[in-house]
Amino acid sequence: MKPIARQVIFYGVIFGLWSLICKLHIWPPYVLPAPWAIVEALWAGFQDHSFPIAILASMRRMLIGYGISVVLGTFLGIVLASNRFFEQTVSGLLVSLQSLPSICWLPLAVLWFGLSENAILFVIVMGSLLSVTISMETGRKQMPKIYSMAGRNLGARKWNLFYHVLLPASMPYIVTGLKQGWAFAWRSLFAGEMIYVTLGLGQQLNAGRDLNDMNLVIAVMILIIAIGTTVDRLLFRTIEKRLQMKWGLLSAT
Amino acid sequence: MTLTLNATEDPTVLDENGNRIPVGAALVSPDAESATPKLWLQNLSLKYKTTGGERMLALDSIDLKVRAGEFLCIVGPSGCGKSTLLFLIAGLHEPTSGAVLMDGKKVIHTGTDRIMIFQEHGLFPWLTVEENVEFGLKMKGVEKKLRRERVREYLNLVHLGKFQKSYIHQLSGGMKQRVAIARALATEPDVLLMDEPFAALDAQTRDLLHDELERIWAETGRTIIFVTHNVREAVRLGDRVAVLTFRPGRLKREYLIDLPRPRHLEDTAVAGTARDILGDLREEINKSLAVEYQQ
Ligand SMILES: Nc1ncnc2c1ncn2[C@@H]1O[C@H](COP(=O)(O)OP(=O)(O)OP(=O)(O)O)[C@@H](O)[C@H]1O
Ligand SMILES: [Mg+2]
After folding, report:
1. What is the CA radius of gyration of chain B?
2. Within 10 A of B116 (CB to CB), how many other CB atoms are there?
C-alpha cells in the first residue's frame, strides 16, 4: 500500500470516529464541536477574509523575525567558531540559554518594548536565534579539516574559501539549524501574538476563546498546523533531501 | 644505484632581503646542484601539539633539494611524518623551524603551483565529479570554456569521462582517487605532491596509472614528490627514493634510482633495488612497531 493511501485511510478513520462521537451527543458542541462545523468555520474565515489577512500578518512577522535570526545567527555562529575565547565562553552560555522556552522571554520583551510589534519580533528572534547560531557553529567546527585543506590547496582564499568550501561543507548542519530555527520561530510567534490584540493567527485564537467560539479555535489550530507542516515539507524537507542525495547520506537502494 | 654525499662547499641561498643564508650539507643527487633547486627544504622541523599539551616532534631537520623535473619518492613507516612533509611543502602547515624554498623563494602560503593529492582524497561531496576537477581552475580564474575543455581532457585521462555528472559518493574508492588525481593535474601545477595516491587501487588500475603518471611527468616536466609505503612502487616511479626514520621523522638515506625507463613493477632490477631499500625501511618499521606495542 502506498503511504498516501495509508494516510487517507488514517485521516478518514479519525474523521469518521469524530463524526460518530458528535452524533452520539456525549459532549455539548462547545466542548467538542463537530468536524463539519469546523469546516464551516474555516470556510467562513476565508470568505470574510479574516483568515487570509491574519495569515499574511503572521507570516510577515515570521519572515522578519526569522530573517533577523538567520542573518544574526549565521554571523554569530561564524564568529564563535573562529574565536577560541568566544568558543569557550559564549558557546556554553548559548547552550544554557537554549533551555529557556521562548515564552519565558515574554515578560522581559513586554517590559522592554511595551505591548508592541517589536516585543513579538523579539520573542521570535529569541526563540530561533540560538538554534541557528549553534548549528552554524557546530557546522564550522565539525566540518572535516580535509575540506578546508583541499580548498586552500587548490587556491581558495578568504571569501572564496568561505563561500565555495567552508559554507557548503557545513551545509548539512546549517540546514538542520535553519529548519529547527524555523520550527522554534513558529512556536514563538504564537506565544508573542497572544500577548495583545493585533492582526494575526494568534489573535484569531484569542478571539475564539473570548467569544466562546470553539469552532474558530480549532479552525485556527488546524491552519497553524497546516501552514507549519507545509513549510516544513515543501521547503526544508526538499532542501534536506537534495542535500542528502548529493552527499550520499541517503541509501541509493 | 648510488648514494652521493654533497661534498662541495656549503651551499648558500639568498633570502628576500638579499642576505646569504648558509645551508648545511645534505645528501643530494649530483644534478640538484647545477641550478636553483625547484624545491629546497632547509632544516625543516615541525612539532605538533598533542592532546596532553606537550609538543611532539614529527619532523626533525629535514634537508632536501629537489631539482626541477625530478620524480622523488618518499617512503617511511606509518606515522613517520610523510603526509606532514607534504603539508609543509604545500604551505598548509607552518614549519616550527626551517623553511621551504620554491624556486629560491620562501613558501609562506598555499599556492596553485604546488598541488597536493591527499591521502584521503579530499574531494568535495557537494560538487559533481566535473565541478570537483574544475575547482582549482575556477579559483585560478581560468575562463569557463577553457575550464570545460581541461576538465574533459583530464577526466578522460583517468578514464572517468562518463562520470562527469556523478556525485562523489556514487564512485568507488579507486574512482574517487582517480578524480582526485584529475583534479590535481587539471590545475597544471609545477609541483605535484602525491600522498599515497594509488594505495586504494586494484593492481591493474594502478599499473595503468603508473604508466600514465610517468607519461605526463615525461611530457610536462613537472616535479613530483610521491609518498608511498610501497617500496617497489617507489623504485618503479622515482628518480630518487628517500627513506624517513620513525619518530621523529628524519632523512635516513637517499637512493638514486638510475634504472632505465620504462620500468615495470615486476622487473627484477626494480625488485632487487626495492629489496635493498626495504632493508632500511624495515628497521624503521620495527622501531615503530616496538613503540606501538609499548603503548
Ligand atoms: N594534526 C595533528 N595533530 C597532532 N599530531 C599529528 C597531527 N597530524 C599528524 N600527527 C602525528 O604526526 C606524526 C606524523 O603523521 P603523518 O600523518 O605525517 O604520518 P605519515 O607518515 O603520513 O603516516 P601514514 O603512512 O600512516 O599516512 C604521527 O605520529 C601523527 O600521530
Ligand atoms: Mg600519511
Report:
1. 19
2. 29
Which grid cell sits at A188?
Answer: 514563538
Atom of ligand 1 nearest to the CA of B50: 4
* Cβ neighbours of residue B104 closer than 8 Å, sequence gap 6 or more: B13, B14, B36, B40
Q: What is the pLDDT of residue B34?
A: 57
Q: How many angstroms separate the alpha carbon of residue B80 from the centre of ligand 1?
A: 7
Half-sphere exposure of B8 (CA within 13 A, CB side): 11
B92 to chain A: closest CA residue: A149
Q: State which of B188, B203, B232 marks the end of a domain.
A: B188
Tell me if A154 and B118 make a contact (CB, 8 A cut-off): no
Q: What is the CATH number of the domain that holds B279?
A: 3.40.50.300
pLDDT of residue B20: 45
For B24-64, how does the pLDDT look when each residue is reduced to its tens digit (9 = 90+)?
A: 333 444 454 557 888 888 888 888 888 777 788 878 888 88
- Tell me the C-alpha distance between B1 and B103, whole Å: 28
SS3 at position B12: strand
The last residue of one of the domains, among B149, B173, B188, is B188
A196's torsion region: left (phi>0), alpha (psi -120 to 50) or beta? beta
Under the banding of pLDDT at 50, 70 and 90, the label for residue A122 is very high
Which residues of chain B have a Cβ shorter than 8 Å from any chain A Cβ?
Answer: 87, 90, 92, 109-112, 114-116, 118, 120, 122-127, 135-136, 138-140, 167-170, 183, 187
Residue A88: what residue type? Q
Residues of B in contact with A145 (CB under 8 A): none
Task: Kindly tell me if the per-residue pLDDT of A244 is higher than 70.
Answer: yes
Domain residues for B233? 4-113+189-294
Please give the mean pLDDT across all residues of chain A.
88
Is the distance from the beta carbon of residue B78 to the nearest atom of ligand 1 less than 6 Å?
A: yes
ipTM: 0.80
Closest CA to B241 of B203, B265, B274, B264: B274
H-assigned helices in chain B: 82-90, 129-140, 144-157, 173-186, 203-220, 231-237, 268-294
Mean predicted lDDT score pLDDT of chain B: 82
| Dist CA A127 CA A188 (whole Å) | 6
A156/B140 CB distance under 8 A: no
Residues present in chain A in total: 253
β-partners of residue B101 are B40, B106
Which CATH number belongs to the domain containing residue A88 in this structure?
1.10.3720.10
% pLDDT > 90, chain A: 37
Asked if the model's pLDDT at residue A8 lies above 90, the reply is yes
Give the pLDDT score at A206: 87
